[in-house]
Amino acid sequence: MSQENVEIVQNALNGFVASDQATWGMLDRDIEVHDHDIMDAGEYRGHAGFERWIEDWESAWSEYSTQPQEFIDAGERVVVFILQTTTGQGSGLVLERHDAMVFELRDAMIVRLDYYNSRSQALQAAGLAA
Predict the structure, then answer these.
(1) Does the pTM exceed 0.85?
(2) Is residue 28 within 8 Å of 46, Cβ to Cβ?
(3) Which residues of 36-93 form beta strands (DSSP E)?
(4) Residue 30 contacts by C-beta under 8 Å, 6 or more apart in sequence?
(5) What is the pLDDT of residue 93?
(6) Which helix (DSSP H) or strand (DSSP E) does residue 125 occupy?
(7) Strand order of the sheet with strand 27-35?
(8) Of the four, 6, 62, 114, 130, which is 20 to 30 A from 93 by CA?
(9) What Cα–Cα distance (Å) separates residue 68 from each residue in 16, 23, 42, 47, 91?
(10) Which of 105, 99, 108 is nearest to 74 (CA)?
(11) Are strands 27-35 and 109-116 parallel, antiparallel or unpaired?
(12) What is the pLDDT of residue 130?
């Protein structure tokens, strides 16, 4: 089942990267998003919350790209290391960031997404680091 989870996350993330649209059929209707990179981000729940999270994140950047670099099987979770290239809204500052996401799946659906700007935090959250 865990390799199936990796494939689900790969398809969802690659679909988002290609179209800048969520792959709704792979996201549980009650999905939870926890962004550990945004101070006081609040709660993002359900499809509307997921959209609000994307909008909040996008509002900081005039341009951005996401490149998945590695997918790690962690059973019911999948850790993804990504390269973010962003241009600051207003400042024009270009940043390259190595961020990480932890996707939790249940019944072939993504039920939770945790976003980190630290690979080690993501690994620890997925139970893969000491």
Answers:
(1) yes
(2) no
(3) 44-45, 61-74, 77-88
(4) 45, 46, 111
(5) 93
(6) helix 119-125
(7) 44-45, 27-35, 109-116, 94-106, 77-88, 61-74
(8) 114
(9) 11, 16, 25, 22, 26
(10) 105
(11) parallel
(12) 52
Tokens coding 128: 């893969």
pLDDT tens across 5-40, in order?
Answer: 999 999 999 888 777 667 788 999 999 999 998 777
Q: Which domains does the chain have, with CATH numbers?
A: 2-125 (3.10.450.50)
Cβ contact 113:96 at 8 Å:
no
**Positions of the chain with pLDDT under 50:** none
3-state helix, strand, coil in the chain (%, to 5): 30, 45, 25
Across 4-51, the runs of DSSP E, i.e. the strands, are 27-35, 44-45
